[in-house]
Every structure is written in structure tokens, then in C-alpha cells.
Amino acid sequence: MSVADRIRDGDGTLAAVAGVAAVVLALLFAVSPFTVGLPGELSVFVEVGVLFGLYVILVLGLDLQYGHTGLVNFGHVVFFAVGAYTAAILAAQDSFAGTSLGYPWPLALVAGVLVAAVVGAVVGATSLRLRDDFLAIATLATAEIFHTVTVNFSGTFGGSTGIFGVPQPVAAVAGDFGKTMLATLVLFLGLAALTYAIVTRLTTAPYGRVLRAIRADELVTRSVGKSTFRYKMQAFVYGAALAGFAGGLFALYNGAVAPSFFTIQVTVTVWIGMLLGGASNHRAVIGGLAVIMGLRLFSRFANDLAPVTSGEFASLRLIVVGMILVLVIRYRPAGIWGDAEELGVDS
Amino acid sequence: MGLVQNVVFGLVQGSYIAIAAIGFTMIYGIVNMINFAYGEYLTIGAFVGVLAAGVLPLPVAALVAMVGAGAASIALAKLFFTPINETGPVPMLLTSIGLGLVLRNVIRLGAGRSARYYDTESATYEFAGVPEVPVGSVDLLGNFFVTSRMLVVVGCAVAVFAILHALLTRTDVGIAMRAMSDSEDLARVRGIDTQMIRNSVWVLAGVLAGLAGVLLGIQTNVSVTTGFSQILQILAAAILGGAGSPYGAIAGSYVIGLVVALSTAFLPADMTGLSSAVAFLVLVVVLLVKPSGIAGEEVREA
Q1: CB contact (8 A) between residue B291 and residue A144
Q2: CB-based contacts of A332: which residues, under 8 Å, 6+ apart?
Q3: Domain B3-289 class in CATH
Q4: pLDDT tens for residues B253-300?
Q5: What are the residues of chain B with a beta carbon less than 8 Å away from any beta carbon of chain A?
Q6: Boundaries of every domain in chain A
């Protein structure tokens, strides 16, 4: 559970304070002379925790698009991937596959956010006027195109090998493995809390009310004089930029990017987390994400006990994940903590 | 390889996409959902066919596959889609994505990762002596060949188009399908049993998917991704043709088939993997310029 979970739904001030505190703490810890040995059994928890921080940023962006504005973006992974690849190409040094330009990493991170936002704007311009389910198809197709492009243009994107040699700032400062992982965990959870604070600020403002009005009835919203296309475009681009930020962080944490990190699996995980928790409620979607990622963590241990190969186990896990998606939509369309009336669904 | 050869490939690919795209677009028009699990119906058909072909002659095995896929389609619809028919297109699309994930992995567990092949004999007809008209690196005519398998695929497609046309214009069920596709409420007022029509569309779509799966399996091989690898092209063809319109889907399928085949010819050799991306690019451009497709109704929200 992240810091954000224990905070009551307010204006996000507490989350902002906690986020800043966590980020400062993580940086201080990274530069401090203390060292920690991370026991092997614990490292898997820390790894999943780091990933959880990134996915929280992803799910908050998606919730802004779907939960608040009603935009069915089923290619969220593409913005995550664009951010990661942009940051990696700009910052990597001497990668043996693909392009590596060797610019400083802060620049690369900012560029990752910007390029993801631009891609979001282009996709939005082409498909935000379409019916909901067609937007889903257009975004899904975009993700598929980008995946094919990264695999095929090996001169730029490194093909299926991907790009290596991306600088890892936290590791460079902290030194040993255990300390790096702990500092990264606290840093990413802090950044996730900050994202939560910013998104909450946005959606509790009158601006957020317009977004929810668009989701409820776009025609009515337009008839009271709101430029609904502009609002939809903004929400879409904000979500894309947040995913790009998470992607940039991922590249700088992992030190490498490859097409296999950015499959439809990412989109599905984030969507299930959001629907399971309850769309349009920031705390609920984070809770749902925690449940689904907890299941993933649990399944890693369960695999050791179950008498099947890891390939078969992966298939079993995906069957369970797919069934959860189907069952949630059928029996709890508002999610575990969601408000059915607010979402306008029967439950 | 000449352009003529690529056009032949494009027509063959367009043919099996068309058979599947008709089923896909009819589900869209009448059940009002984008069925993302539809690729798995093709896989089911291909597997049933390859198992049946072990003991039966191939044409009979293809019929068994069509019946099997039709039965699977109606059973899955009863279990997953009919209960949430009233919730709107987005929950149904999400359900189909979840269902596709489940089906794909169930098939992978049951069948393993290795590919299976239909044991068929194929005659090849060479057309040599066609003059070459090179323009740059591309040859505008050139020698080409046609195999008997290709002729079977195209022949099946033409037969399906003829039967479908007869079904939609001459039978009560077909006319009711067209009526429901236009307006479900008016169709119900006129006394059409809408749920029965929906069920028949599910069966029809499954049968078509089964046939497309078998043809695809004969052309390539049968594995867990046989159908899934085609779903985006089927989707692109259906939307290109105007979602909900079977005739548009046929036209859209041949456009997609030809675009994919020709882009393979024109792209540099190390980038042929991009040809499927080209199909989606066509889709995105169509959504941008004319979202209603070649023959369809308006899909813009605003």
C-alpha cells in the first residue's frame, strides 16, 4: 500500500506534503553514507513496490481520461512506451542496438513527457470525435503500430533487443543494490503521491466537474457553452503526459527498454485495477491496482508450489485476470469502492 | 517478385479476411458491440478443423469446424454477452477483451505452443513468360503463380458472398437481420423476435469464423495465435467498409488485403514486418477522414 492510500479523500494537500517528504527522504537516503543489505526474499516485494509506484501514475492518468471524462483509451501502454523510449534514446550512452544520444537524463525525462503529450494530442485529434468504442479501437491500433515500429526500426529503437546503457541516476548516487532499490521505492511512491495530489487538485476544481459532466452527457455540456472537444483533448493529453512521465522514470530505473516491457499486458493490468477499484475515485483506483498487483506478487510465490511449468502458470494467471475483468464488469460495474450512482451504472 | 504476384496474394488474403469480417461486422451491426474475442473464434474453428481432418476428409472436416465454431459462438454469447446486452458498447467491448484473454490462454494450455498443419496437397499453376515492366526496384507485371489452395480460398469466399446475399435478401431471417441493423426498436415494434435474430447472428458469425479459421490454417498453420494475429486486420476491414455493413466489409477486406500485400512488395526487405502496421495506418486515416467508412452510417459522437 502506498502513502496515498491512507490519506482521506480531501484536496490532496496531505498527499502533496507526504509526497514531497518521501522524495526528499529518498534523495537524502541515497546520498547518505548509510547502507542497507536487502535480503533476497524481500527484494521481490521491493521490485513489485517500485513497479506499483509507476503503475499508480499510469492508473491516475487513465482514470482522468476514462473515470472522469469517459474516454475509452485502450492503448494506454503506448504513452508509457513513448515516454520510456524517448528518455532512453536521448539519455543512453553507447547502446549496442538502436540510437543513443547521451544527453543528460533530466532533459531526457522532460522530453519523454513532452513527446508522450504530443503523441497523445495527435491520437486525440484523430479519434476524440469518434464514438466511445471506436476511440478504444483507434488507441489500441496506435499501441499495436508503435509496437511494430519499435520491433522493425532497429536502427532507431533497437528492434526486439531494445536500448541499453540508459543512465540510472539513483543507482549512480546510491551505489549498492539494496540501497538503490529502497531509495527508488520511496522516491517512486513519493512521486506517485505527488501525482495523486495534482490530479486530485485538478478534479476537485470546477474543471473536474466539467469533465464529469462530459462523461455524463456530452450534448448537455456542450449546450451550456463548454467546448467539450477542448476539455476532452486536455484530459487525454494530461493522461498521456503522466504515462510518459512514468515511462521516463521506468527507463531511468531499469537502465534498458525493450518491446517486451510494453505489451498490451500493461494496458490490461491498469484497466482491471481501475475497474476493480472503481473508476473516477482516485483512492479506489489505487486500491484496485494494489489488489491486482498483489495477486501478481502472490502468484509468483504460488508458482513455486504449483505442479505446473512457469509457461502454463502464466497462462493460468492470464485466465484468472481475464475472468476478473469479465466478472467485475458484469457483477460490480462500479468497482469495489466506486459509487454506482456517480458513475451512472446499475450494480 | 512482380506486382501481379502480390496482387494475387492480396486477393487471397482479402478473401479470408472478408469471410471473417462479414461475421464481425454483423455482430457489430446487430448486437451493437465490437467483439475483440472474435479472433479466438477463428482459432477455435482452425483447431476443430485440424482435429477433424485427422479422421475425416478435408471438406467434411471444414463443415465440422464451421458447426463447432458456430456452437462455440452461441454458447459464449449466452454465457457472456447476452446477459449484459443492455449495458452499452463499452462494457461489452471490455468483456470481449477479457474473454479473448481467457480463451487464448485456455487454448494455449490445451494445445501447447507448437503449430499444427493441415495435410493437404496443392497443385501450383505457373504463369511464365509475362513481360517484365520494371519501374525502379518494382516490377509492374512479371511471372506469377497460383496454387490450388489459393483458388479454394477465393472460391469459398465467392460462395460465401453469394449465399450471404441470398440469405439477406431472400429469407425472413436475413431481412429481419437487416431491419434490426437499421433500427432495433422499429424491428421489435414490427413483431421481430430480436433475441432470436441476435442468436442467429451469433451462430452465423461463428460459422463464418470457423470457415475463415480453416482456410487460414490451410494457408499458414494452426497455432494459438492463428486468429488473434488477424483480429486487427478484420477490424480494420470492417470499419473501413462501414461498421455494420456486410457488403462494405467485403470491399474493405480486399482493400486491406491488397494494401498489406503491396506494402510488402514496396517496403525494404528488412521492414516487411511493418506491413501489418500499414493496415492499421489505413484504419487510422479512414477514422480521421471518413469515420463512417465506405458504406456505413455516421459514427461520430459530436
Answers
A1: no
A2: A347
A3: mainly alpha
A4: 999 899 888 887 777 666 666 766 787 777 777 777 776 766 555 444
A5: 33-34, 80, 83-84, 87, 89-91, 93-95, 97-102, 104-106, 108-109, 113, 232, 235-236, 239, 270-271, 273-274, 276-277, 280-281, 283-284, 287-288, 291, 299-302
A6: 3-263
